Amino acid sequence: MRIGFAGLGIMGSGMAGNLAAAGIDLTVWNRSPGPTQPFSERGIAVASSPRELATESDIVMLCVSDTPDVEAVVFGDAGLAEGLGDGAVLVDHSTISPEATAGFAARIADGGATWIDAPVSGGSEGAEKGTLSVMVGGDPPTFDRVRPVMEHFATTITHIGPEPGMGQTAKLVNQILVVVTQLGVSEALLVAEAGGLDLEKTLRAVEGGAAGSWMLSNRWPQMIADDWRPGFTIDLQLKDLRLVLDAADELGVPTPGTALTFQMYRALQRAGLGGEGNHALVKALRGMTESS
Q1: Residue 221 burial (10 A CB sphere; 0-12, 13-18, 19+)
Q2: Domain check: are 152 and 16 in the same one?
Q3: How, if at all, do strands 132-137 and 120-121 pair?
Q4: Which of 22, 81, 136, 292 is 20 to 30 Å apart from 197, CA to CA?
Q5: Which of 171, 201, 239, 283 is catalytic?
Q6: Closest listed residue to residue 81, CA positions, set 58, 57, 59, 108
Q7: How many domains are contained in the chain?
Q8: Is the domain of 42 the same as that of 97?
């Protein structure tokens, strides 16, 4: 089975790297050539365009930043849609609009291909280690066909439902939990600091109980070390939260915690910190303390 991978950014590079390490028959493509070089040096084929990538692949995996990026790579000039053959599968690991996903799936179905939406969670660490979680929407038999490929970079793969867009909606649920949890972790850190606690001992004391979470265990150590390298950037987090707020508005669901956290991240972005990790949310709270 021939696999194509389009989009070698902070997540896609690790995912494609695990496919390469597994000896998959792989071809890659990226909008800028730099990220393709490590693959080329390993003897991995590099396509000259998305269309060529799709032509050379039975399954194409896509991981780019936002809804317009997906549309451009799939339906733009020399896009994936021009090269997808009858029976081909496009697996979108990007986090984009559920509504747009349904529309994109219908468009490629007209040409005989199938769209699977499969956004991922776990940060750059999970992408590199092969421990991502994947939330999947789409045709069940097609999911069964692509699941063995996903298992090279994911340990939790859940088929949410048969309709394209269901995986994207589940990812929005994930992002609500991520950012609201990070807000709690940030507030807790400030209280621990102000109270004069040993921050490493405090982490050990609380992470094994009811307060434990992935964000706590993985981001607290970074925060106390002033390590703001991104597992997931503020810029991308803001993009996802816009999707959450749009979907919640459509569904008539109140999301006040998410809306508050969105505003805090936006303030950090405007301060020039959009490239830092989403755990830098604590800086917004520290700014409130410093100005009081």
Answers
A1: middle
A2: yes
A3: antiparallel
A4: 292
A5: 171
A6: 108
A7: 2
A8: yes
Is residue 192 pLDDT above 90, yes or no?
Answer: yes
C-alpha span between 9 and 94 (Å, rounded): 11
Over residues 115-162, the pLDDT tens digits come to 999 999 999 999 999 999 999 999 999 999 999 999 999 999 999 999
CATH, residue 226: 1.10.1040.10
Cβ-proximal residues to 101 (8 Å cutoff; 6+ apart), any chain: 92, 115, 117, 137, 164, 165, 168
Catalytic, 171? Answer yes
| Same domain, residue pair 145 and 124 | yes
Query: Containing domain of residue 273, as a range?
Result: 170-291
pLDDT digits (tens, 9 = 90+) for 217-245: 999 999 999 999 998 999 999 999 999 99
For residues 180 and 258, what is the distance between their CA atoms, to the nearest angstrom?
6
Q: Which of 57-61, 110-114, 244-248, 285-289 has the lowest mean pLDDT?
A: 285-289
Flag whether the pTM goes above 0.85.
yes
**Whether residue 55 sits in one domain with residue 95:** yes
Six-digit token pair at 29? 């493509």
Which among 161, 195, 218 is the end of a domain? 161
In order, the DSSP letters of 139-193 are -HHHHHHHHHHHTTTEEEEEEEESSTTHHHHHHHHHHHHHHHHHHHHHHHHHHHH
Q: Residue type at 275?
A: G
* Euclidean distance between CA atoms 185 and 211, whole angstroms: 9
Query: Is the domain of 10 the same as that of 126?
Result: yes
CATH number at residue 139: 3.40.50.720
Last residue of a domain, one of 161, 195, 225: 161
